[in-house]
Amino acid sequence: MHANPSLALRLLINLRLATSKRVERVERDALLTEAFARTRDFESADERLATALEAARELGDGELLTMVGYRAVRRHLHAEDPSEARKYLDLTRSGQSERARVYAAYAETLILPYEERVHEQAARLIELLRSLDPNRSEFVEIRAWSTHTLAGLARELYIPAAIPEIDRQLSGTQWPDDFAPNLFQALRSLGWAKALQGDYFNAFRHLKRASEVTGTTAWKVVAACDRSYLARSFGEHRWSRVELDEAEQLGAQVQWHATLAEERIGLLQLAELFGSLDTARSAMYLAHYRELGEIRSPLYYRHDTRRTAYAQYSTGVVELALGNKKRGLAELRDARKVFERFGYDFRVARCLANEFATTGNTDILPIIEEKLRNYQQSWLVAELRDLIGSGSASLPPMQQRVFEELCQGKPTSEIAQSLQRSEWTISNHIKEIFKAFDVKSRSALLVKAASQGLIKRA
């Protein structure tokens, strides 16, 4: 169900069924169809599918046809062929029972993200979950995956109707331990969805609970980083640092090379959070993340560009913090293209806000304001007002520290000693600062900074 399809395949193949129980053989072949597809053995998957379809049609059993159709949909989605998967949707509607109806509805929600129709997927998931009683044990797998998926979409899209339905599902009967990963992701995404609507109390509550339900230290790192970022977002810097210290201590216990690939976002989060505090540590975490290679997540299909875009955004922010302006902006712009395609407005706004802070391009501001129209209660709007009010582009953290030293009249050598960097590095930062302020000398920089009220007076 989660990460070991090969083991599941062996168990199914070894399953002993009485030869007279034809229905059970059809069910086994349907399951084997998906199991082989998960291991990329599509030839064996198609053999099992053909056998299951023939037998189900001979039996004339609508319920069996629904389940075979459902496994056929999943087989073609593992091959990332949504058009072929759609051909089996009518088959999933063969049965008349509640079970058949639920699986048929769920099958379509699985196809939609492959077609990048995420708004429609969210609407179908809400409809499906409203039909399921959270206090019944039936359909727990579908409830868990649907709730988890809808929460992820509610974090990215403005879907007010989704949040109460997610709350309803999470307040019902406790999910079995097998679904702890789904519960963790649902709570984490729900926390951020509420934060984006200004409900910080419940956001922290969900993020804290997410940390409690996960079974891996790597995910606890991610949850602690989430809380650190959220605390920082509304000015609780001391609290943020406490959470960040916890994340770093937990991270030191993780064998990152042995983690499920998606858990490695914890390294990117640490790199991003340290970007404004300690660039050396930030660079270290980014390098460690890159050493481990591309993320291959069981929660997204193989070529889901959203996964890449999330990593590009964090990498871009870190590169800017390290003073690598060109590389950072390139990463952010690539991420923004993906977010725009999916309609992830607040993510687009975050990319643009970082670009404005780096370039000072005021043409970006109306676009950011439009993208944040549904997030007026969030910290993002306050950040935007701060950017606009500054009257000039913000500097990356290290350049800001160099700028503050320049405003004290210190020479390059003294700044290098103070910040424990080489004079060559400091000289490069000074050149970038001159570009940001559109000046060519230190004296001109001081005059312009004073006119903007950026030089602190004793």
What is the gist of this entry?
Helix 1 runs antiparallel to helix 2 and helix 9 (140-156) runs antiparallel to helix 10 (162-170). The chain has helices spanning 5-13, 22-38, 42-59, 62-78, 82-86, 89-92, 98-111, 118-130, 140-156, 162-170, 180-195, 200-213, 217-233, 237-251, 265-274, 279-291, 305-321, 325-342, 345-359, 365-371, 379-390, 397-407, 412-419, 423-437, 442-451.
Walk me through this protein's architecture.
With 458 residues, this protein is mostly helical. Among the domains are: 316-390; 397-451, Winged helix-like DNA-binding domain superfamily/Winged helix DNA-binding domain (Arc Repressor Mutant, subunit A, Orthogonal Bundle), CATH 1.10.10.10. It has 25 helices and no strands. The chain has helices at residues 5-13, 22-38, 42-59, 62-78, 82-86, 89-92, 98-111, 118-130, 140-156, 162-170, 180-195, 200-213, 217-233, 237-251, 265-274, 279-291, 305-321, 325-342, 345-359, 365-371, 379-390, 397-407, 412-419, 423-437, 442-451. α7 packs antiparallel against α8 and α9 runs parallel beside α11 (180-195). 43% of the residues are buried.
